[in-house]
Amino acid sequence: MTNPADHSSWIHGSVDCTPEMVGYDPSRMARLEEIFEGLVRGGKAQCAAYCLSRHGKVFADRSFGPRHHDDTSPMLPSTWRQIASVTKVLTSIGVLKLVEEGRLLMEFPVSKVLSEFDTPALGKITLQHLLTHTSGIVPDPGSDGEANPDHEGIWNMMSTPDWLATVVAMKPTTAPGEAWRYSSVGFAILGEVISRVVDEPYAIWMAREVLAPAGLRQTFWDIAGKPIEGFAFVSDKNRRFIEDRPSLLHHPRVAMGGAFSTCRDLARLGQLLVAGGTLDGERVIGRRTVEAMTRIHVDVAAPHWGDKFTDWKYGLGLEPARHPLVEPGSVWGHEGSGRSAMWFDRESGLAMSWILPTTLDWDPDFGWTPRAVVLSGLM
User: Fold this and answer.
1) Which of 34, 192, 223, 275 is surrounded by the fewest CB atoms within 10 Å?
2) pLDDT tens digit string along 115-151?
3) What is the rounded distance in angstroms from the CA atom of residue 43 to the CA atom of residue 69?
């Protein structure tokens, strides 16, 4: 491993092979690192980490810069960071695992599990609507491009004991299936669905039934016993959030964005989906389920944080990459605020992830730009 005290160079974690051994052009990694270094040196990101694998073999696991805003501790490949909305991929796998087991049905209304949804306004919402952000449930603040979005209001609401009753009382923005509106609250509802069906807290069941068989050993919701030094944080507020954070095992936000992870684990999640739901002999979900996740279920006009797309596409808990050089529906993944990303290409066997701790909102250089560079390395 490279000397971790040297912030001017990349720290290299362990790998399974060289890029050339799996048909990847290492010059594209140099370009990726140039972009990430520019973000760090330009003050847009505090530090950077990324992991790349192909055909189940990791060929890059690297980090750069300081992991804390107030000291010189280096970002390591093993540093934990909240992955925000990439958590939704895990939640989707949990829901679909219960569908495979016959404990849930995609076509049935959510009210079959959550009696609170047995109302004229919400009674037709299904699991598929929630997984594809087409339920009409309150969208994320700012996702429609509105001025002065109330971020604090909705997230504070999610911290109250009667959050579900408050959501049920809100008027849907559209009829189910009518439009795509990104809704983290919809995934909090999916977490509640999981919890009620399995009769235990979402995070406990997910850790046992999804994380453990997937081999995601550095992914978790409960931070008890984890040293603060092992986390990347970008402000005093961010540090306090981790230090003072109570157990979130019963909090609705865990299912929509509460997981912590590393780049290596995120790349392994991509590997799991590349491999069709079974990795290293451990089955998490079936191949047909992964095929369903990576099939376009939504193709509609949609607002997207100020942009207006005429043909926004979506799978089951996964987003297809919008890239002029790839076929729609061939590369899939998810991004998370703060910032993190996981993408994979089932045809080429490539999985990629990166973590770019920042206080800034979305920027193409946090997501679309590095994805394009990584995809260009396939030989």
Assistant:
1) 34
2) 999 999 999 999 999 999 999 999 999 888 788 888 8
3) 11
Kindly state the tokens that stand for 44: 């847009």
Whether the Cβ atoms of residue 272 and residue 333 lie closer than 8 Å to each other: no
Length of the chain (residues) = 379
Residue 236 and residue 7: Cα distance in Å, rounded? Answer: 21
Q: How many CB atoms lie within 10 A of CB 269?
A: 30
DSSP string, 191-256: HHHHHHHHTS-HHHHHIIIIIHHHT-TT-BS--TT--GGGB-BSSHHHHHHHHSPPP-TT-TTHHH
**133-143 exposure pattern, b = at least 16 Cβ within 10 A, e = fewer:** bbbbbbbbbbb
Query: HSE of 370 in the Cβ direction (CA atoms, 13 Å)?
Result: 31
**Cα–Cα distance measured from residue 115 to residue 198, given in angstroms and rounded to the nearest whole number:** 16
Q: Are 182 and 140 in contact (CB under 8 A)?
A: yes
Query: Which residue has tokens 């800034």?
Result: 360
CATH topology for 84-349 is Beta-lactamase (3.40.710)
Which H, E and C letters describe 53-87, residue by residue? EECCEEEEEEEECECECCCCCECCCCCEEECHHHH
Tally Cβ neighbours within 10 Å of residue 177.
17
CA distance 86 to 259: 8
| C-alpha closest to that of 266 among 192, 340, 331 | 340
Distances (CA, A) of 240 to 157, 233, 244, 245, 340: 20, 9, 5, 8, 20
